[in-house]
Each structure stands twice: as C-alpha cells, then as structure tokens.
Amino acid sequence: MPRSTKAAEPMLVPESVSRQPQQGRSKASLGRMLAAAEKLMLERGNEEFTLQEVSKGGKVSIGSIYLRFESKDNLVRAVIANELERIAADEATMMAEVVAASADLAAFMPRYVESYAEVLRQHAPLLRLSMQRASFDPLVSEPGKQRAFRSEEAAVAAMLGYRAEFCGNRHEQKAKAAFHIIFATLARQLSLGSTGESASLRDWAELKAELGRMCLTYLKQAE
Amino acid sequence: MPRSTKAAEPMLVPESVSRQPQQGRSKASLGRMLAAAEKLMLERGNEEFTLQEVSKGGKVSIGSIYLRFESKDNLVRAVIANELERIAADEATMMAEVVAASADLAAFMPRYVESYAEVLRQHAPLLRLSMQRASFDPLVSEPGKQRAFRSEEAAVAAMLGYRAEFCGNRHEQKAKAAFHIIFATLARQLSLGSTGESASLRDWAELKAELGRMCLTYLKQAE
Amino acid sequence: MPRSTKAAEPMLVPESVSRQPQQGRSKASLGRMLAAAEKLMLERGNEEFTLQEVSKGGKVSIGSIYLRFESKDNLVRAVIANELERIAADEATMMAEVVAASADLAAFMPRYVESYAEVLRQHAPLLRLSMQRASFDPLVSEPGKQRAFRSEEAAVAAMLGYRAEFCGNRHEQKAKAAFHIIFATLARQLSLGSTGESASLRDWAELKAELGRMCLTYLKQAE
Amino acid sequence: MPRSTKAAEPMLVPESVSRQPQQGRSKASLGRMLAAAEKLMLERGNEEFTLQEVSKGGKVSIGSIYLRFESKDNLVRAVIANELERIAADEATMMAEVVAASADLAAFMPRYVESYAEVLRQHAPLLRLSMQRASFDPLVSEPGKQRAFRSEEAAVAAMLGYRAEFCGNRHEQKAKAAFHIIFATLARQLSLGSTGESASLRDWAELKAELGRMCLTYLKQAE
DNA sequence: TATGAATGAGTATTCATTCAT
DNA sequence: GATGAATGAATACTCATTCAT
C-alpha cells in the first residue's frame, strides 16, 4: 500500500472490513484465513507476506480471500480489528476485577498498573503491529484512538472512585495525567510504540512498582 | 528490505554505514544525497522512495550512491544516524543549560521536562522514522538503545545533583524511574512510538506540567 | 477469449448458441440475461463485462446463464445473433417499401441509399460490436457473411428490376458493384468497420446524395 | 486496458509513445522489442500477448521495455505509429507515380484505385490492428484521423489536376466523395474495418475495375 | 572515480467456470 | 432445474543492484 487510503468508513470492527456474515463452512474458512494471516503478520510484519502464502497456509483459495476482503489491506485490518476487540474485552474484565479487589487507592494503583501491564503484555505482538500500521493507515488509527479514549475513560472513572483520597481539587485532570503516564510507560516498556530504545531498565518489575508508587504519591500528595 | 539484515556491525555512526572519509566535491555530493534522501523519507516514510528519486533530487548518479553506501538500507541508516548525532548534541546542550539555571529540584524538574520535550519535538519527524525502523532493523535499534542509555545516564546524573532533597534512599533507582516515565510520556505524546492513539489529552502543555509535578512529588515525597 | 474458438457450428442463429427452446419463466429469464448482456456490451464493449454483472443486472443466477449458454462467448454471440435477425427483418421491410415507392431507377437509387443508411444507423451500435467480434470469431463472421450475401441478393434483385434503364450489358455485375460500394461507404461512415478515420466529410447527408447520384450515373451511363 | 486513456498528447508519432532517442545498442534493442511485439500482435491480436513473451522473443529484459515505454499500451501504440509512418510514405510515393504516369482522368482513376488498393493490401494486417485499436483508444484514433485527412487532401488534389475534364461545377465536392467511396470500398474489401462480411464478390479485381469506372463516369458525366 | 542503462524476480487482483446443495 | 460460493491460473509493472563504458 503506497501509504494512502480511500474514502473510508471510520470504524474498524471486523464487519467493516470483512464482507458478509458467514456461517458454517464459510465461517471456518474465514477463520482459517484470518489465522493464517495473523501468523504470517506476527512472523514477518504487517505486510510482509503474500496472499499466496495465506492461501497455502490457511487452505483457502485466493479467490475466497477476495470473496471476504476487498483487498489485502482489508485482510490486514481485519486481523487487527479482531485483536483490538479481544483486547477491549480483556481490559474491561481486568478493570472490573481490579476495582473489586481494591479497598483504597493504595491498593488500587499498583494492582492496576500490574494488571494493565499484563493485559498489554499478552497482546503486545499484535498491538505492536496495530500501532505500526496506525502510523499511516487512518482506517486503523482512527478507531484506535476511539479505543484508547474509552480506556482512558474507564481508568479515570476507576481512579475517581477513590477521589476522597485525592489531594488538591484538579481530580479529573490528575487522574487523566496519571493514566496517560501509566499507559505511555507501559507501552514503551512493552515496545508497543516501537522496539528501539525500550527495556533498558534492568528490572521491569521494578519500574512497574515505581510507576504505581509515583502515581499514588502524585494523586494523594501533589497539591 | 524484507525485514532481515546481513552480518551487521552494531554501531550506527555515520562512518559505519557510509564508506570513506570524503572530501571536496565528493563530500558535497555525499551531502546532497543524504539531504535528498532525508527529504524523501520525511515526505513519504522510511523506505517509500526510490534511488532514482534520490539520484534526481540530489543531482548524483545512482552509481555514486552505491559508491558511498553498500545498499539503500545503509543510506537510510546513514540519514538516521546523522540525525541521532544532532539530537545527542542538542540534548547535551539543553541539559547543561537546564542544570545551570536550576537552583533546586523544584526548579529543575519542570524546566527539564519542558526543555526535553522541546528537543524531542524539534526532531520528532526523523525520530519517528528512526523508531519505526528500529522496530525491525537491529542496526538501528541497537545503537538507538546505546543512545537512550546515555540520555538516561545524563538525566539521572543531573537529578542526583539534587539528591539532598530526595526522600527515601533508593535515589538512583527513583531517578531512573523518573527519567523513563518522562521519556515514555513525552515520546508518546509526540507520537514517536507510532501515531495512533496519542494526543487525546486536550492540553499537552498541561500534561507536561503534571508530569513535572508528578516526578517532583515522587522524588521528594515517595518513601 | 484468447482469440480462438473450439469446434464451431457455422450458424449463428439464436438457437445455435443458446441451449433449449424455453418457455414461461425460463423464457423470461433468458430474455433478462440477454437484455442485461446487451446493455453491458453497448456500454463497455463486446467482452468488457463480467457474468457477475449480467447476473446482477438481469436478476438471474450465474448458474442460470450456464444453463442456457455453454460459455460467456456464446452469450455474446447470442446477443449479436438476435440483433442480426432484427436487422435482417428491418432490411427486408425497408427494401419492399423502397421498391414499391420507386417508379424508376432515378427514384430508386437515392431513396435506397437513404433508407439503407437509416436502417444501418439505427442498428449501428450493435452492428459495430458484431463486426468487431467477427474480426476474430468465425462463429460470428461466417453467418455474418451469409447475411451480407442475402442483403446483396435482395439489393441486386431490386436494381435489376430497373434493368431496362441500364447501360451496357454487364447488368448483374454492375448492380453487385453498386451494392458493394454503397454498403462499404455507408458502413464506413457509420463507423461500423471501426471508428477511426471516418466522418471527415463535412456533410454526411451530402455524401449520401453523391453516393446515390454516382451509382445512378454508373448504372445508366457507364458503358 | 479498461477502455479509457489518460490526458494524452494527440500525436501518435513514435516519439510521443517511446521515451528517448536511442542509438547504437539501445536502438537495436528497441528495434527488437518493437519487432517482437509486432510479430505477436499480428499473430494474436492487438493486446493478446504478454510482455513476458516480448521479452523472450525480442531478447530484451522486461525492465528495458519499461525503460522505453511507459506501459504495454504505449508499446502497442508505438508499433502502430511506426506502421502508420511507413504507410504514409508509401502512399505519397504511390500517388506521385500514379499522377506522373496518367495523362488524363481516364488513365488516372483506374490506376489510382489499383495502386491505392495495393498499398493498403500490403499494410492490411497492421492497418487492421490499427483500426481495431482506434475504436477505443483516442491516442490511436485521433492521429489516424489526421492521417486520413491528409490522404484525402492528396487524392482530391490529384483528381482536381484533371478538373478540366469534370462535368458540372461542384468539382471539389465530387472529388471528395469519390475519394471517400474509393477508400471505403477498398478498406472494406481488405477487411480493414473488420473482417466479417467482406469479400463476397467473386472477383475482387473486378470490383476494383468497376470502382474506377464508376468514379470516372461520375466525375466526367454526373451533372 | 563516475555514470546510468540494463536486468528480472516478485505479487496483488480478476473473473470464467464448476459443482455441492 | 436453480443457485452462487469457491476456485486458481494468469499478468503488468517496480525498483534495488550491477557493470560496461
């Protein structure tokens, strides 16, 4: 793809890039082509595979792929969209569990950092591909932004559940800042944004601990 | 490049990817080809240009390019290496100025965050390319890590200059954590890691302020 | 079709390319597919359409098309054959009227040229497609020749009805020549043979008049 | 080609579709690719060949073809343009000879018909391809029209050289009509416009004779 | 040194035809 | 009879790299 995309519906749910609701045999073959494509994307990179390979690996004909997807680009987007849906679900579950288990902010913050890190870590490989692609494909970046915004809302809401413990009065603002800083730090450590210069701190576990501590101190003690 | 790299010398100084110390006319034409390549990379992306275009834009023959660089990949790496050197220089200057102007940690932290953000912002476009490429090219990611490590050392040293004000006794560890968190947050906000999901906080200026405040509180008050 | 044709029955009546005498619903759907194909052929060219499109436009399944026609080629031939039948009918009617209305050769010739031109003009679009296809498909060119031969016979017979006025004694030969020249000139002017270089005479009406005059003079006065 | 063409310079001289004036080895390889393409076009039809085949047959690399021609379409156009130039030259020579050898119109007309028929016959195969292509490619049809117009001018001028013998006073008009009728008849007989329904007159030699006679009678005796 | 013409492997996409239902 | 999902062969074009001059 020469780094440009057509008109474009802004949503990246699997339905917007795939073609028809499938069932039975069709659904199975759709699954096989998505799985084959995902495998290749993870091994080689977002676009570094051929449809020939997907056809072979997924035991589907080339024509079948074009029956479901308008283009190779849309196949790539579908793989990403699928993963983003799984992540959103995991994130929601995680957040509910963390809130339920945390009596106060001091319990919440480290647990949240740790759990969020784990969710991201589990999905890191495809998340990385998703973010790489988002850097030039609006059909991926737009819905990605939506999703990030909903993550922020959920996290901010959870923190504000402990607002009685907050210091100062810019509660929401501070919660937002905390979320951004947490996400940025975790993403970087998991090399989501890129691989390059991350992971130089000997102890990643340690950074997570400091991150929780920092946010806790910030929310409770910064004016 | 199909995501693989040959032998691979681990350094990415301009000399390791370029061929020989140039002089006079040769040096000028080397400059023109680097400038032409950089322009194209910024306009289109890391590899989305042809050597034909570099040849035209830089008024150098294709043969000349291969006289200086073993491959197109090495040309790309040289452009990146050049920029990384400029960044390192700017960063060192910036750090010296910030330290000189800051009497205590409360003065240092916000000024450092602000100034570092500015340095990164100025170099963001090529830095973005550099990080994209680092995600699959060890010849870019390895030296990138080195450079990041030196940035960390400098920042940690600067913060430790104010260690008397630190709370607790894990001084170095906390300084390292602060640096990581600052860098990750700034990088993300500048879309260095990718573009996708960044920049959802209304006020980027505000995030920088919070970031400084958070680190300050953390260093001075977290046990 | 890569310019080759199988076995090949030499007739191109609709029955030879279609499969069975249809009736009721089937006949209606046959009509719809022929109409849809004709529409597409006129819009885009002889083969520049897909069966998918015929299926959609004619509200018939792809399978249905293959139930009636052995191949896409035969569908195209059927569209052409249908049109050729319509033309033959129009031509016969036209000829009868012209003869009935013409007392002598001086009345007949211009009227015939004019009327024949009108018949060809009305059918020009499909006639053009027919002739394009005939250039490489014997299944179209062979029956086309038959039809042209019958046109010639009818025209020659009509002219010979006025043989008393002919000069010289190679009556039939001259009538044939006149027919050929008339047909060739009209066909060219209507861009039947191709589009290219036709229609450069300012006044097409004028050319028809000259054509009639020329043939009249030729038949009555050439030795 | 999906039957549409870009902006388009209206001329179809070899220079407008080819890329650079060649010399030496380059010129030879350009010649080989044109010859190979022409051979394939004559065997199969205008576009019914692959560049792979041209590469093999002409002993040139695919890349070389694209070095000379922007597209396969332009290669086809170049083959046609070359032939059109040769035809124009032959036609001019022929016309000069015919005029030089003809004392009066009675000598000129049959000789002209005969000679023009011969020129067209010699070039018939490629001329046929040219006209087929012209039916949908303006880059071929436009210059084709120009060329036809110049043919008309030359023929009309030649006939008017004998205007003293003309009857009536619409001299130019009649000469034009005669040319059109001659060209149309010859073209049709040579199956230039298509193949289909031509050549049904037993004796093609005879038709040419009648054609000459008809035009002669027309010019000298039609009022 | 310097040039830039020549090379040719590699790949997304279309669409006539088949055949299980 | 009717359907339309599945098949997969076939092909124009790009561009990094080489090497004769």
Task: Please specify the SSE layout and strand pairing.
The structure is a homotetramer of 223-residue chains.
Chain A: H1 14-17, H2 25-44, H3 51-58, H4 62-68, H5 72-101, H6 105-134, H7 138-160, H8 171-189, H9 204-221
The first copy, chain A, binds a DNA duplex (21 and 21 nucleotides) through residues 25-26, 29, 50-52, 55, 60-64, 66-67, 71-72.
Pfam families (chains A, B, C, D): TetR_N (PF00440)
Region (Disordered) (chains A, B, C, D): 1-28
Organism (chains A, B, C, D): Sphingomonas panacis
Key terms for this structure?
DNA-binding, 223 residues, Arc Repressor Mutant, subunit A, homotetramer, mainly alpha, 0% strand, disordered N terminus, Tetracycline Repressor, domain 2
